[in-house]
Amino acid sequence: MSQVNAAGVVVARSEDVPERGRVVVSVGGQEVGVFRLDGALYAYDNYCVHASGPVCQGVLMPRVLEALDDSKRSLGDVFSETDLHIVCPWHGYEYNVRTGEHPTEPGIRLRAYKVSEQDGEVVVEF
Fold first, then answer.
1. What is the mean pLDDT of each run of 10 residues along the chain (126 residues)?
2. Which fold has domain 3-125?
């Protein structure tokens, strides 16, 4: 499903992108992943900046954090309750779904697109 309207390209129906889910589409040879998190939509090139892998097709998982006690001793790993990451299936590079940034290298980020919902459709601006 891709048709052009005044605001961009319709890439999916709203119900095709569930909460904490995604859809990956090809528009004119350009692959784009659209994600929904806390009701908001995010769209990125399906292209990992590390080694060109299909990042948007990777596992979605919470960011892994190290829990520390008051003396800064490790208590083990925990999952973030707010940061959802895309993990590239080729080499495990991670990106924050909300920002497209790599968690430790903010200069490394996915190419983002404006995305919106209009009349039950998901629209991406290229």
1. 73 96 94 97 97 96 90 90 93 96 93 96 95
2. Rieske Iron-sulfur Protein (2.102.10)
